[in-house]
Design goal:
Elements: E1 20-24, H1 29-40, E2 44-49, H2 55-66, H3 68-71, E3 74-78, H4 87-91, E4 96-99, H5 113-132, E5 137-141, E6 156-160, H6 176-195, E7 198-204, E8 206-208, H7 221-227, E9 238-243, H8 244-256, E10 264-267, E11 270-273, H9 274-284, H10 297-304, E12 319-323, H11 326-332, H12 339-353
Parallel strand pairs: 1-2, 1-4, 2-3, 4-5, 5-7, 6-12, 7-10, 8-9
Antiparallel strand pairs: 9-11
Helix pairs in contact: 1-2, 1-8, 5-6, 8-11, 9-12
Length: 362
């Protein structure tokens, strides 16, 4: 898919002091890395956390990467995407918003609104509060889930680019994350168009890469579950992998290039079947026993009828969805981090922090 030609980065930095960028969900895997990348570029950053008890961990983690001097430009405030309280103050004096906050679970909840409501209502609240504060520029973390589903693709290989929108009404099997993210993105584009806001959306695949502390993403469990042998067997399907550092860099690049306004960007480096990921982990750690057994596709299809984690991958069983990340790579201005390197860096952080496979994240 074609896109704008990128000129020199536009700087939000003022003559005397860096402009203030709001990062929602600053305690999350992607959120922390976005905060770090912004601080490294000289921005002031205000990050939202759901509870004050997360603030110290986030600040200490970030300071450990960027140093105390840069971390002094970070302010953390409490704000929940399901509550208006705190948001007017959080938006005060802000030049642009990176909306990263969402709810992620490793299982399929019995009540899908546990995931859907924060995605949709949280995005709508963020946009409304930003608009009321006079903020136009928004970078929204979306997902490949809003791109490659509901297109009748059940067998074979198909390549998707940013022109595709997931069609929920045509899906036999939906899952809460896909529904929430798709509805949220469509609501965001509608709101931005109606209110003259400058929106860019970033669409990562399966995000791995180095965790910064013990409060890590569920996606890291894809590697930790292989390393501690808590993954009993492997599905045959694959994932479009992207490194969290590239995801964060893409958010910053979108912020700094006005040509990205009104554009969607896939953040997808490499498609790897789960058995291949297990093989890489085994090659990196030959002394560990890494599961190599695969689950027959028919079993996953059967189990998915009853919900659970299988519902989240059932649409990828028996086919290869290839998400063309070239447009996003051009925005980055450098090649994506190779999947093998991302797996290695993820594994090293799993060992460092003693991370375990998580099923659900509240």
């Amino acid at each position: 898919m074609g896109g704008p030609e990128f000129g020199p980065p536009f700087s939000y930095l003022g003559d005397d002091m860096a402009d203030l960028i709001l990062v929602t969900g600053a305690s999350g895997f992607v959120g922390k890395w976005c905060v770090i990348k912004l601080l490294e570029k000289g921005y002031r950053v205000r990050g939202t956390v759901r509870s004050d008890n997360k603030a110290k961990l986030v600040h200490d983690t970030v300071a450990g990467v960027v140093g105390d001097e840069a971390a002094a430009r970070l302010e953390l405030v409490q704000a929940d995407i399901l509550d208006d309280r705190g948001w007017p103050a959080a938006m005060q004096g802000v030049s642009a918003v990176m909306h990263v906050a969402t709810v992620i679970r490793g299982d399929e909840p019995k009540d899908p609104n546990i995931v859907i409501r924060p995605a949709v209502e949280g995005t709508e609240r963020m946009l409304r509060m930003a608009h009321e504060a006079g903020i136009k520029r928004i970078i929204l973390t979306s997902s490949i889930a809003t791109v490659g589903y509901g297109h009748g693709h059940t067998t074979g290989r198909r390549v998707y680019d940013e022109t595709y929108f997931t069609q929920l009404e045509k899906m036999r099997w939906t899952w809460a994350y896909c529904v929430g993210k798709t509805r949220a993105e469509r609501a965001a584009w509608d709101y931005a168009k109606a209110n003259g806001m400058e929106l860019t959306t970033i669409h990562p695949g399966a995000i791995i890469g180095p965790a910064l502390d013990e409060d890590a993403s569920i996606s890291v469990g894809m590697v930790s579950g292989l390393m501690d042998n808590s993954t009993p067997a492997l599905p045959s399907n694959g994932f479009s992998i992207i490194d969290v550092r590239d995801v964060a860099d893409m958010h910053v690049a979108a912020l700094e290039h006005p040509e990205t306004i009104g554009q969607r960007y896939l953040a997808t480096a490499e498609y790897m079947p789960f058995p291949r990921i297990a093989q890489v982990v085994q090659e990196l750690y030959p002394d560990r026993k890494v599961v190599q057994r695969t689950v027959p596709d028919w079993i996953i299809r059967l189990v998915a009828m009853f919900g659970g984690p299988a519902r989240q991958i059932i649409n990828d069983i028996g086919n290869e969805k290839i998400f063309d990340g070239r447009k996003g790579e051009a925005l980055l201005g450098h090649p994506y981090i190779p999947a093998r390197q991302s797996i290695k860096d993820t594994a090293e952080s799993v060992i460092r922090f003693g991370l375990k496979l998580q099923i659900a994240k509240p």
